[in-house]
Structures are given as C-alpha cells and as structure tokens.
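Long-time lurker, first post. I've been practising inverse folding by hand and with some scripts of my own, and I keep getting stuck on stretches where the structure tokens seem ambiguous. Below is the full token string for one chain I'm working on. Before anyone asks, I'm not after the true native sequence, just a reasonable design that respects the backbone. If someone could post their per-position residues I'd love to compare against what I wrote down in my notebook.
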C-alpha cells in the first residue's frame, strides 16, 4: 500500500504545475481567444463595440514556436491580462479548412487566406486598426505584424505599442526605439545581474 501511494505521489509531483490545454485541432487554448464565425468584418465590429482591438493569431498544429509562446509568454498573468483587457483575438489555422471572410469581403478557407496574406511561418500576429477600408485585406490594413516567437518583454511592448496607437504618432520613436526605451526603463531599477534585454 505504501509503495502504491509513494509511486502515485511521485507521479503527481512530476506533473507540471501549469499544463497547456490543447483543442482537437492541435492548437492551444487561451481564455481570450474568441470562437467566432471568422467573418473578420463582423469580428472587427464586435471588437470596436467592446472597445478592443482586433488581432489575428495565425498558428498551426505542432508549431514549436507557438508552443513556446503559449508556455512561456501567454501563460504569464501580466501578458494574458493585458491581452484580455485590450484585444479581441481570433485564431486562424495556417492549414485550416474553416471558411473565413477577409476584411475585403473575400470568402475562402483559412489556409487560402494565409497564403493571400503571405504568411510563411507561425506564430504570426496581425494587429488591425479600428477601421478598415472595404477594399483592403487584413494584411493590407494591419498596423503591425509580429512574425515569430518573442520574449515576454518584446511581446508586451508590441501589444502596448499597438494599444497606445504609437504607430500614429509623428516623430522618431518607431517600435524598435520604443522597445529599446522600455527595456532601459525596466532595467533601471534592477541590479546588474538581473538586467534583461528582451
């Protein structure tokens, strides 16, 4: 009896404290990813009604970089809460067959849309403005595109930069300069051994 209890306890201790939940499609679930009909014009209108920004997450089954983002970045409460508070997230499957309607009104499968948007790898995050001209696709109207996996600092800075509409500001602080300034601000109060450059 003691051996069985000891083995069960050892197995329980070996489990990760936080486990990613995955859907039947092989894509990770997050509470802030919306399950919509994927008519991006309707999603944009709903995002605006909620006072949020529409964001398209392009991911695929088995993507190690998507896994990294979900496990190391999106699992962070600060990042997750910021996304939930300010963004309306719709996931697009790079190889998916679900029909979507692009912001220009064209209807096609997810995989056809990602080809149209020239998405070659995942994750790929497209940030849309509040208003999109009727003749522009999602990628044509995007105010920013975040291609690839990044650290918490870079990811949070990109979401913040978009949420604050810094892409509209005149001046010399593009995203790279904004991000560099934010790194300096985060490091200002850290001991030398704890400084990060993400």
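-- Answer (accepted) --
I ran through it position by position. Result:
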């Amino acid at each position: 009896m003691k051996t069985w209890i000891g083995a069960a306890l050892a197995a329980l201790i070996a489990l990760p404290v936080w486990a990613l939940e995955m859907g039947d499609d092989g894509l990770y679930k997050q509470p802030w990813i919306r399950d919509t009909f994927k008519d991006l014009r309707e999603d944009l209108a709903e995002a605006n009604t909620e006072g949020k920004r529409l964001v398209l997450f392009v991911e695929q089954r088995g993507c190690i970089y998507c896994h990294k983002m979900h496990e190391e970045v999106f699992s962070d409460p600060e990042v997750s809460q910021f996304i939930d508070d300010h963004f309306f997230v719709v996931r697009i499957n790079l190889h998916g067959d679900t029909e979507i309607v692009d912001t220009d009104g064209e209807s096609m499968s997810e995989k056809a849309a990602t080809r149209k948007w020239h998405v070659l790898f995942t994750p790929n995050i497209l940030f849309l403005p509040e208003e999109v001209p009727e003749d522009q696709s999602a990628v044509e109207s995007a105010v920013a595109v975040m291609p690839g996996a990044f650290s918490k600092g870079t990811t949070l800075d990109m979401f913040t930069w978009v949420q604050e509409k810094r892409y509209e500001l005149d001046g010399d602080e593009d995203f790279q300069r904004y991000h560099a300034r934010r790194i300096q601000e985060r490091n200002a109060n850290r001991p030398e051994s704890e400084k990060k450059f993400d």
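A couple of notes from the structure itself: The beta strands are 33-34, 53-59, 87-93, 99-101, 107-109, 124-127, 144-147. Residues 34 and 83 are 12 Å apart (CA to CA). Happy to go over any region you disagree with.
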